[in-house]
Design a protein that fits this description.
By secondary structure, the chain is α+β, with helices and mostly antiparallel strands. It has one domain. The protein is built from six helices and five strands, in the order H-H-H-H-H-E-E-E-E-E-H. A five-stranded antiparallel beta sheet has the order 1-2-3-4-5. The N terminus is likely disordered.
């Protein structure tokens, strides 16, 4: 395992030990679709933006979404840009995560949707809708992986897959 991933896993495990029991249990239960989302927020609480590297994306996202992000990032770097210029986990460009709550809003054997309601502390929002980040998950390789992330930056809704696909357009 690469040292950076090992470090992130150790930090996430330590934070989960301090997390409220329901989230710690969710993050440790591979059958719970909240697990990969809780792990992202545990990393976020350290001050590190999760999903910033290809290795982090490969660990949390479906193969298809990770590959799409990597292709978009490679293309954007050629022009000196980035494919995604905000933290999709907090739907912001620098908000400190004060707390979060996770709710499974849909679930079947292979797909689930988890809504994360975040408290960004003193970070100003145009609308409370901006504090809700939705994660579409799919079972892949025997565990839940994130297949899309969506939210609202008033007045516009966004979806990660769509943003990445748009970044690949000429």
């Amino acid at each position: 395992m690469p040292p950076r991933i090992h470090h992130l896993l150790v930090v996430a495990a330590a934070l989960l030990a301090l997390a409220p029991p329901a989230y710690a249990a969710a993050a440790n239960d591979p059958a719970d679709p909240r697990a990969p989302v809780a792990a992202l927020y545990a990393i976020e609480k350290t001050g590190h933006a999760p999903l910033a590297t290809p290795a982090e994306r490969a660990a949390a996202l479906t193969r298809g979404l990770a590959a799409l992000w990597d292709r978009a990032e490679t293309r954007a770097r050629r022009s000196g840009d980035v494919a995604i210029d905000f933290d999709v986990v907090t739907n912001s460009q620098g908000a400190e995560l004060k707390s979060y709550a996770l709710a499974i809003t849909r679930r079947d054997a292979t797909h689930a949707t988890v809504a994360a309601t975040i408290d960004p502390g003193d970070w100003l929002r145009r609308s409370p809708r901006e504090n809700v980040v939705t994660f579409a998950l799919a079972r892949q390789g025997g565990r839940w992986r994130i297949d899309d992330v969506s939210g609202t930056a008033e007045p516009n809704a966004w979806a990660l897959r769509e943003l990445l696909a748009n970044a690949l357009k000429p």
